[in-house]
C-alpha cells in the first residue's frame, strides 16, 4: 500500500480534476502520483526528472508529457516528489499566479484510514498498477547487492523477500 498511499495523500490534497499537473521527480512516489493524478481527473499530467530512464518509465506508465526541467512557467498544480532541496525551492518558479503546491510526506493520523481505503479501492479496480515501479527483487540474503543497486541510482523500487 505504500508508497501509493503517500502519493494518494498528496495528489488528493491538490484537487487535480480538470487541471494540468506537474509532478517533479519520477521515483516510485512521483510515478504513482502521476498515475493517480490521471485517475483523479487531471487534464494533463507532466512528469519531470533529470534521469532519462525515469522519464521513459513515466511515459510507459501513461504520463501525458515528460520533460527535463527547464525554465518554464504557468502550471496550476505541482506535486514535488524529488525530495531535493533545490527542486523544492525552484518549484515556485513554475507556478502561475493562482496555484496549489504540495510536497509529498508520509501519511499519519486520521488521514491514514481514509488513504488506506481509497488506495485499496484503486488497487482492486486495477486503475493503478504498482508493479510497474518495482525495478528489482532480491532475496533478503542478498541485501548487500540490493543496497549497491539502490545507491548506484539504477533502481526505482526494490522489493526484498525475507523468506529467502
Fold topology:
Layout: H1 4-14, E1 20-24, H2 28-39, E2 44-48, H3 52-60, E3 65-67, E4 75-80, H4 85-90, E5 95-103, H5 111-124, E6 134-139, H6 143-151, E7 157-161
What does this structure look like?
With 164 residues, this protein is an alpha/beta fold. The protein has 2 domains: 4-109 and 119-124, Rossmann fold (3-Layer(aba) Sandwich); 130-161, no CATH class. Helices cover 37% and strands 24% of the residues. It has 6 helices and 7 strands, in the order αβαβαββαβαβαβ. The chain has helices spanning 4-14, 28-39, 52-60, 85-90, 111-124, 143-151, and strands spanning 20-24, 44-48, 65-67, 75-80, 95-103, 134-139, 157-161. The strands form 2 sheets. The chain has a 5-stranded parallel β-sheet, with helices on one face. Residues 28-104 form the Alcohol dehydrogenase-like C-terminal domain. This is TDH-like protein.
Spans with pLDDT under 50 lasting ≥5 residues?
Answer: none
How many domains would you count in the coordinates?
Answer: 2
CATH class of the largest domain equals Alpha Beta
**Overall pLDDT confidence:** 86
Strand coverage percent: 15-25%
CATH topology of the largest domain: Rossmann fold
Q: With helices defined by DSSP (H or I, 4 residues minimum), what is the helix count?
A: 6
Indicate the percent of residues in helices: 25-40%
The best one-word shape is: globular
Architecture (CATH level 2) name of the largest domain: 3-Layer(aba) Sandwich
The main pleated sheet reads as: 5 strands, parallel
What is the terminal-to-terminal distance? 22 Å
Organism: Mya arenaria (Soft-shell clam)
Pfam families: ADH_zinc_N (PF00107)
InterPro entries: ADH-like_C, NAD(P)-bd_dom_sf, Zn_alcohol_dh
Domain Alcohol dehydrogenase-like C-terminal: 28-104
